[in-house]
Design brief:
CATH architecture of the largest domain: 3-Layer(aba) Sandwich
Radius of gyration: 26 Å
Largest sheet: 8 strands, mixed
Bound molecules: xanthosine-5'-monophosphate
Structural class: alpha/beta
CATH class of the largest domain: Alpha Beta
Strand content: 15-25%
Shape: globular
Helix content: 25-40%
CATH superfamily of the largest domain: HUPs
Number of helices: 13
């Protein structure tokens, strides 16, 4: 496996994802907790950082048990770190070095640049530059503005690169990581979905034994894949609970419950619609709605879990980005909306936690699901918020509004599928606005609700762009909603990006 030491760069997770794409397992550890036992690691990558090596508070961990002992690649700050603290000199750049640049490989036949085209485009993002290398280092590549764009320390497998190979704009970045990890460090690319399934099932069997596990299914990809893995490992000792909070998409509860049963899961469907509606009564503040729903979920789940005798474990579909965020250099990021908290289960449940996906990125979760034969409609499903339609009904929530929104949403989603747009969109949904406006239908004046359509492109939900849907699609969808959904006389399309807007309206 590969160790990635995080110095706080916004690109650290991208490095990990590129490494995983090479079928190589890697772990991110923050710079202030450098692992001392390196026996599991075959190579180390140092990330970039918002810090300058020249500042007093620059991260400066002791890497003497790594440097010169394991193949080591410093990226950006990592490269500057390896120069500055080992006899080289780092200074502020005289020109702005942000964006695309082209590499000239100085020294021929270097393994690091094998199969990389001459003048390869790379992505730069730094304000310091390496003016002088350590005495025993040699320049491997330059760009027009950066003399030491890549270097190697003689007699060691230590490399520094000023550009970011993990960013897509570095066209040969993946090849460079391949060269470093596979050709230079000799890491075996054996991290495949199949290998992950075999390894995880064996580990779960070993860890859980004959104990019972309870798991809350949400209909989403993560909890479903976690359930199938656990089912493979412990069969009927996995007790799944699928709660209908009454805030799911139209027909979703019944359809997904059926699918779960068809997959052989031991699943209990619990219709708690009334309880959730009760909890939400007259609440219109978005955060209070989330809290009310969270509380109701815990109550329902707790009742159900207690009904199963002698449960030892609670399984969760936590994935790697949540784990990284909770241990990251910068600590958990500011709460914009309260859903970003991991865990959230009450202490009184006193169950041991098992999280079979905690080392996987989202795209890997999908690959693992596909490997286990999960249906494509479950795997390719758009993300859907835990509080469901409640945060797409602005203002207070009642069953009538939910029904209306479900109808409009079902038309939007069905049309996306009909037009073969569903898989091109990262997430889509309809928002019910708390305003009435005047319309005319037949000869009658109407004074009815307005809905907004929202469709975004994104890779992780952190940033998003609205999708340029065809006008004809929007026209057909608007007509269909207004004609079929009683109570709606106006449809608008949301053309806000995130940031500054968010994907959901609440
Ligand atoms: P925002 O609205 O913050 O959403 O841009 C980013 C992603 O998170 C989903 N989301 C939630 N998921 N509980 C969840 O489980 C929530 O309270 C919640 N709020 C937003 C949203 O659908 C999008 O995918």
């Amino acid at each position: 496996s590969v160790l990635i030491l995080d110095f706080g760069s916004q690109y650290t997770q991208l490095i990990a994802r590129r490494v995983r794409e090479l079928n190589i397992y890697c772990e991110i550890h923050p710079f202030h907790k450098v692992p001392q036992d390196l026996s599991a690691f075959k190579a180390v990558i140092l990330s970039g950082s918002p810090f300058s090596v020249r500042s007093d508070d620059a991260p400066h961990p002791d890497l003497s048990h790594i440097k010169g002992k394991l193949p080591l690649l410093g990226v950006c700050y990592g490269a500057q770190y390896l120069a500055h603290f080992h006899g080289g000199k780092v200074a502020p750049s005289s020109t702005r070095e942000y964006g695309r640049a082209n590499l000239t490989v100085v020294k021929d036949a270097e393994t690091l640049f094998e199969n990389i085209t001459e003048n390869s485009q790379v992505w730069m993002s730094h304000s310091d530059t390496i003016k002088e290398l350590p005495a025993n280092a040699i320049t491997l590549a330059s760009t027009q503005d950066v003399l030491n764009a890549a270097y190697r320390v003689d007699g060691e497998e230590t490399y520094g690169i000023q550009f970011h190979p993990e960013v897509y704009h570095s066209t040969d970045g993946k090849q460079l990581l391949h060269n470093f990890l596979i050709e230079i460090a000799g890491v075996v690319p054996d991290w495949t979905p199949g290998a992950f399934v075999d390894m995880t099932v064996a580990e779960l069997k070993e860890k859980i034994g004959e104990d019972k596990v309870v798991l809350g299914l949400s209909g989403g990809v993560d909890s479903s894949v976690a359930a199938i893995l656990l089912h493979k490992a412990i069969g009927e000792n996995l007790y799944c609970i699928f709660v209908n909070n009454g805030l799911l998409r139209k027909n979703e509860f019944d359809e997904v419950l059926h699918q779960y049963k068809d997959m052989g899961l031991n699943v209990k469907g619990v219709d708690a619609t009334a309880r959730f509606m009760d909890a939400l009564k007259d609440i219109s503040d978005p955060e209070l709605k989330r809290k009310a729903i969270g509380r109701a979920f815990i109550e329902v789940f707790d009742d159900e879990a207690h009904a199963i005798e002698d449960v030892t474990y609670l399984a969760q579909g936590t994935i790697y980005p949540d784990v990284i965020e909770s241990i990251s250099v910068n600590g958990p990021s500011a709460t914009i909306k309260s859903h970003h908290n991991v865990g959230g289960l009450p202490d009184f449940m006193k169950l041991k936690i098992v999280e079979p996906l905690r080392m996987l990125f989202k795209d890997e979760v999908r690959r693992v699901g596909a490997e286990m034969g999960m249906a494509t409609n479950l795997l390719g499903r758009h993300p859907f918020p835990g509080p469901g339609l409640a945060i797409r009904i602005l203002g207070d929530v009642d069953l009538e509004k939910v029904r209306l929104l479900q109808e409009a949403d079902a038309i939007f989603i069905a049309n996306l599928k009909k037009w073969k747009l569903y898989d091109k969109v990262w997430q889509a949904g309809v928002i019910l606005l708390p305003v009435n406006s005047v319309g005319v239908m037949g000869d009658e004046r109407t004074y009815e609700k307005c809905v907004a359509l929202r469709a975004v492109e994104s890779t992780d939900g952190m940033t998003a762009d609205w999708v340029d849907l065809p006008y004809k699609f929007l026209q057909d969808t608007s007509n269909e909603i207004i004609n079929k959904v009683k109570g709606v006389n106006r449809v608008v399309y949301d053309i806000s990006s995130k940031p500054p807007a968010t994907i959901e309206w609440e």
